[in-house]
Amino acid sequence: MIILIDNGHGIETICNGSPDGRLKEYKYAREIAAEVVKRLKTMDYNAQQLVTEEKDISLGTRCKRVNDICKHFGKTNVLVVSIHCNAAGSDGKWRDARGWQACVSLNASARSKQLASYLFDSAQAQGLKMRSPKPGQKWWPQNLAICRDTDCAAVLTESGFMDNKQDVEFLLSDKGREAIINLHVEGIIDYIKSVSK
Ligand SMILES: [Zn+2]
């Protein structure tokens, strides 16, 4: 399995962040993505970052990179997880919405939903506050290019709200970073084990 970790945004998306400026989405997601890849590689998994550039790479280019790898290795041998932080508003104010969620495209494959479910279970096991569109559903259907326009199992994770004070405190803490890294590593490994049975 080829594991592609996408870090969401580049440095040009600098406006996405917490109202107090302590958390920048592009930076946070990049740090998490790099560490997830590093740990998976240590365990001999074939993991790589989809975007190694600092600058913003368009969604079209990101999807093309994924699909080129799918063409070469077969789409069932590839997965992509795009790491983001959520926001309830865009006016620079603190909000109440909190929690972790896994998103798939509106036309998601069974594999994408399966990957989202393993990530969800793994996040729950880390003790995170979870968000579901309805009770018992572990994936959140959304119209997201990185999930919609890629051929393999594809999930976008929203790791907490960057405009919620409690979430930001948690995300920036050592414990929080570790939980976010671990849930991605463990959820991906659980998915790979389930499909290679
Ligand atoms: Zn984002």
Question: Topology of this structure?
Answer:
Elements: E1 2-6, H1 25-42, E2 46-49, H2 59-73, E3 78-86, E4 100-104, H3 110-125, E5 140-141, H4 145-148, E6 153-161, H5 165-172, H6 174-195
Parallel strand pairs: 1-2, 1-3, 3-6, 4-5
Antiparallel strand pairs: 4-6
Helix pairs in contact: 1-6, 3-6, 5-6
Zinc ion is lined by residues 8-9, 25, 84.
Q: What is the count of helical runs?
A: 6
- The coarse silhouette is globular
User: What are the low-pLDDT stretches, counting only 5+ consecutive residues below 50?
Assistant: none
Rg calc: 15 Å
What bound compounds does this protein have?
Answer: zinc ion
The structure class reads alpha/beta
**C-alpha end-to-end distance:** 13 Å
- Relative helix content: 40-55%
Strand content: 15-25%
Mean pLDDT: 96
Strand order of the largest sheet: 2-1-3-6-4-5
Supply database-style keywords.
6 strands; binds zinc ion; 42% helix; single chain; six-stranded mixed beta sheet; 197 residues; alpha/beta
Structure description:
- This protein is an alpha/beta fold.
- Helices cover 42% and strands 17% of the residues.
- The protein has six helices and six strands.
- The chain has a six-stranded mixed β-sheet with strand order 2-1-3-6-4-5, with helices on both faces.
- Helix 3 (110-125) links the parallel strand 4 (100-104) and strand 5.
- Helix 5 (165-172) crosses helix 6 (174-195).
- It is globular, with a radius of gyration of 15 Å.
- The chain starts with a strand and ends with a helix.
- The mean pLDDT is 96.
- Zinc ion (ZN) binds next to loops.
